[in-house]
Write a structure and sequence with these properties.
- The structure is a single chain.
- The protein is mostly helical.
- The chain contains 5 helices and no strands.
- It has a domain of 44 residues.
- Helix content is 68%, strand content 0%.
Length: 82
């Protein structure tokens, strides 16, 4: 049986939609992300580069755990790490 892979964005949106946060808490989370610039272009590019390096075998899971923890946790959540 062939398993269809869902894209990260589709899976993330579905999971996020299932979460219900208090509007005040949601705003605090958004404010923190903005203040720390966690979703700016540079950080998005670094996360994508780190993940690509892992997929291509240039980086180990240990590298991701130490140097790119958000990517590491997402790879764990998707079952890409053993």
């Amino acid at each position: 049986m062939t398993r269809k892979r869902r894209s990260f964005s589709t899976e993330f949106k579905q999971e996020a939609a299932s979460l219900v946060l208090d509007p005040t808490l949601h705003q605090q989370v958004d404010d923190t992300i903005a203040q720390l610039k966690l979703d700016d272009t540079g950080n998005r590019h670094k996360r994508a580069t780190d993940f690509q390096g892992f997929v291509e075998g240039d980086y180990t899971a240990e590298f991701l755990r130490k140097r790119s923890p958000f990517v590491y946790r997402e790879a764990m959540r998707q079952g890409l790490l053993t």
